[in-house]
Input
Amino acid sequence: MLRVSRIIKIFNARTINEKVALHNVSFKLEKGDFATLIGGNGSGKSTLLNCIAGVYPADRGSIFIDGKDMTKLCEYRRAAFLGRVFQDPMMGTASDMGIEENLALALRRGKIRGLRWGITNKEREHYKKLLKDLGLGLEARLGTKVGLLSGGQRQALTLLMATIKRPKLLLLDEHAAALDPRTAKKVMKLTDRIIEEENLTTLMVTHNMRDAIKHGNRLMMMYEGRIILDIKGREKQKLTVEDLLERFEDISGEEFADDRTLLSQ
Output
């Protein structure tokens, strides 16, 4: 479902501030894979996600989604294939629009708009059912402006919007990191449920080692723009935080020193 081949990304090329963010990164995700991506600050994980989404063009290499070459497509052209949830609960939604209006925008993503009634009664009932399944009482607040929702409610809504059209690939960019621990746990539980029910191919960036181990069927770790660990199946099921840190040190030759990641163990 996703094939990344020898991606290179360089910022400020041929200047004193040149930074090679990605070094020949290659990997594949099969349909239904749920991979977590972890690494210290500056390891390249967010840059990789942004290259897949089309935010940054890759300097070299190729990106295929469901067999289609996305390498040269701009961000909005890839939107028809991707669902994405950001770290900031304020992103991914229109705060001055109502809940049902945001869902309608998500449902029409990639479609040609015409002059017709915006939201039908049948469509509204569909939204109510989807929102009821979230268990947050939002089905009774369809007209409420999204900006009035709590961070957890907004992130849950964004997750629903990102998956309402069953994307070929779901990208989760530390989507629980800005939430309090209790709310983050609820959002992660909801994430697992939606991914499993829809059999979504998913790539989730996280700074939390326990979340990276607990969720998904595959774990990849980045260091200095490279994927240095790729663990899946039974090997991942038996993995512990201590094992992960030890393997990182064996491969990189140094201790894992990202305070944000270590404090979230």
The two ends are 31 Å apart (CA to CA).
